[in-house]
Amino acid sequence: MHVVMVIIYAFVVGVIVVTVCIGIPYLICRGIKAYRDRQSKIARVYERLEEVADKLDILSLMQASENRWIPCEKKLPMSHVHVLASLKSGYRYQVMPMIYVPDMLGDGKPTWFTLTRAMIPNSDVVAWQPMPEPCKYW
Questions:
Q1: DSSP H helical segments within the chain, as ranges?
Q2: Which DSSP letter does residue 133 get?
Q3: pTM here?
Q4: Cβ-contact 100, 76 below 8 angstroms
């Protein structure tokens, strides 16, 4: 009877040892694999979110860079408002911030001023657009 108890005890201890030596590392490995799989999925989601954010940045840049020039023949800006004006100077064009003042000299002709108060002939200004929004990344 004593021998049978020792054999059963040895068997139970062996099962426990095998379970501890094989089962726990197996469970740990499964847990690590599941953790890595989750981390990999999370990394793919973050990569996709970064791609979408980059596309949104590109779209906003494209929208911001759309041609917003308004020809002076079609419409003139409001009086005394800062705008970006496109000037034809000989064979080239320039862009500079300006202020439009209608009929300042009383001759019925509109007048354009640079921000340094230099007067520009109306015939040189070909188009204008509203000033861009100031930078908000400070």
A1: 2-18, 24-64
A2: P
A3: 0.47
A4: yes
pLDDT at 32: 77
Confirm if 121 and 133 have CB atoms less than 8 A apart: no
* C-beta separation of 108 from 125 below 8 A: no
Q: Residue 60 — φ and ψ, nearest 5°? A: -65, -35
pLDDT of residue 45: 84
Give tens-digit pLDDT for 96-127: 888 888 876 677 777 788 777 777 766 678 88
Instruction: Please tell me the distance from the alpha carbon of residue 118 to that of residue 128, in angstroms, as a whole number.
Output: 17
Contact present, 120 and 94 (Cβ < 8 Å): no
Burial 31-58 (b: 16+ CB within 10 A, else e): eeeeeeeeeeeeeeeeeeeeeeeeeeee
CB 85 within 8 A of CB 125: yes
Phi/psi at 87 (nearest 5 deg)? -110, 140
Q: How would DSSP label each residue in 83-122?
A: EEEEEEETTEEEEEEEEEETTSSSSS--EEEETT--EE-G
